[in-house]
Amino acid sequence: MNLSTKGRYAVMAMVDLARHTNGKPVALNEIAQRQEISLSYLEQLFARLRRGGLVVSARGPGGGYRLARTPEETRIADIMLAVDEPIKATRCELGSPRGCTGQQGRCVTHDLWEELGRQIHIFLNAVTLADVVNKKVLGMSRKLDLGETSKEHVAA
Fold first, then answer.
1. Cα–Cα distance for residue pair 97/54, rounded to 1 Å
2. In a domain, 125, yes or no
3. Which of 2, 9, 31, 126 is buried most, with the most CB atoms less than 10 Å from its CB?
4. Residues 6+ apart with CB under 8 A from 47
5. For the chain, what is the domain count?
6. Minimal CA–CA distance to 128: which of 85, 83, 76?
7. Does residue 156 fall inside a structural domain?
8. pLDDT tens column, 29-75
């Protein structure tokens, strides 16, 4: 599965915005410099984020962008969807008659990859900007650790 720079950069920029806003708009050139992302690319991403209702812009001197919601209310999945970053692990195109194999059928592992895509979406929907800013992401999947899962299956 590939996660494009579009999704990664949008999340990086939103985390930067959450860290540096202090209630005031943040200029995109500041984010671009701190995160080493092209300013023109950020402008494209923030246009999508604005249309998605995740940021608001302020024009004029001291202008820039602010979060439209609190970091606790802004989910990483929302950011990915706002910049049209599909969260999927199959080669199948939704609604297309073509299958994974390039013909009409699905590959033998289609259900595995489709479920992986769903799990990624569930995870990203559970993580907020505040979680990333406060470094609370590592360990979130600890309950799904193979060791704990194996014990549950043995007990069942």
1. 34
2. yes
3. 31
4. none
5. 1
6. 76
7. no
8. 999 999 999 999 999 999 999 999 999 999 888 889 999 999 999 99
Residue 107, domain CATH: 1.10.10.10
- How distant, in Å, are the alpha carbons of 7, 61, 64, 68 from that of 17? 15, 18, 10, 11
Nearest Cα to 123, choosing from 141, 136, 135? 141
Inter-residue long-range contacts of 66-69, CB under 8 Å, 24+ positions, other chains counted: 66/17, 66/21, 66/23, 66/24, 66/25, 66/26, 67/14, 67/17, 67/18, 67/21, 67/129
The pTM for the full model equals 0.79
**Are the C-beta atoms of residues 82 and 10 closer than 8 Å to each other?**
yes
Task: Output the six-digit token pair for 42.
Answer: 């950020």
Kindly state the tokens that stand for 24. 């005031």
Phi-psi region of 53 (alpha: psi -120 to 50; beta: other; left: phi over 0): left
